[in-house]
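Below is how a single chain appears once it has passed through the pipeline. First comes the sequence as given, then the structure the pipeline wrote out for it. We keep one example in the README because the format questions we get most often are answered faster by looking than by reading.
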Amino acid sequence: MDNKDKFIVSVKVGPKGQITIPKEARDMFDIKEGDSLMVLGDKTRGIAILKADDLYDMMNGETK
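Resulting structure:
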């Protein structure tokens, strides 16, 4: 695995509770304007963001 498969970046929460998904993440996960995302949260494990289509595929047992 090379360094193009991972990254770490800091983002700030804006006054309306919004964050900007960094370009590197949008490119890596093919996130485009208009895509639906799912925000999953667990108080001890944190927050995860997935493309809605990918989550639905996983729930239906489909793999990419």
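The longest strand covers residues 37-42.

See the next section for the split statistics.
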